[in-house]
Design goal:
By secondary structure, this protein is α+β, with helices and mostly antiparallel strands. The chain is built from eight helices and eight strands; from the N terminus they run E-H-H-H-E-E-H-H-H-E-H-E-H-E-E-E. Strand 2 and strand 3 form a beta hairpin.
Length: about 250
């Protein structure tokens, strides 16, 4: 561990009761996420200013919904618990993994109860179309990679997929992402793992853990800028996503 402050930190399975705490932590970690800016149809970058309190709350509700839905599909939510000299142990990082195998998605009514209605009310009715437009080209790139490598099955039914992971800004740089990844690798030592990185920096971090880039997908070209914020003209470059795979 690169910092003595992180000594004693450990990874464990999260409880349902901790979803709100996890989501609040990840909102801080993903405040500048181009993906979530795109999903929310943001007209300006999200900030910590009081004027953006409602927007931050909408982002937190989306993360809560994502976690509840993932857990309903058999997802595995892990958290890093850590303390500092001045504050007691708390959730410092989290990851949600979708295991191999297809489970029937929750019904619309069940999804609404999980928080989908709050997401739609906060981010507009177009949010589901934006999520679909985001997901399909990434899924296609991973499926093509499976075919090229002659791997059995599909990414959905035979890989552990990292749906979301993040570390509280206060704890970044202390090795907690590494702890979350290594715990997953130990849990499923002979598995294929898939994910998509949303920045070149994140892409290069995952490379260090054995992930290979299988493509580059530009999201929102002609609609959003590099931050995922609504734009037009030459500024509407879109932002890159890097589907990645780790084969045992």
């Amino acid at each position: 561990m690169p910092d003595d402050e992180a000594s004693g930190a450990h990874v464990r399975i999260a409880t349902l009761e901790e979803i709100e705490e996890v989501a609040a932590m990840l909102q801080r970690a993903f405040i500048a996420s181009p993906v979530q800016a795109y999903f929310s149809n943001a007209k300006a970058p999200l900030t910590t200013h009081t004027k953006d309190a409602k927007r931050r709350a909408h982002q937190t509700k989306y993360i809560q919904f994502l976690f509840r839905r993932s857990l309903s599909l058999g997802g595995r939510l892990t958290v890093v618990i850590a303390a500092t000299e001045n504050r007691p142990a708390r959730i410092a990082g989290a990851a949600i993994w979708r295991p191999p195998g297809y489970k029937k998605p929750p019904s619309l009514l069940a999804s609404l109860r999980m928080g989908l209605l709050s997401v739609i009310m906060g981010w507009g009715t177009g949010v589901m179309a934006r999520i679909s437009d985001f997901a399909h080209p990434i899924e296609d790139a991973l499926e093509s990679s499976y075919a090229e490598r002659k791997l059995p099955g599909t990414p959905e039914d035979s890989s552990w997929y990292l749906q979301l992971t993040g570390v509280d800004p206060e704890f970044q740089g202390k090795g907690f992402l590494s702890m979350l990844l290594q715990e997953a690798f130990q849990h499923a030592p002979n598995a294929v793992f898939t994910l998509e990185a949303n920045t070149p920096r994140a892409r290069d971090v995952y490379k260090r853990y054995g992930f290979e880039v299988v493509g580059e997908v530009i999201i929102g070209k002609g609609k959003v800028d590099a931050l995922g914020v609504a734009s037009s003209g030459t500024a509407a470059t879109g932002f890159p996503m890097y589907p990645m795979i780790k084969v045992p």
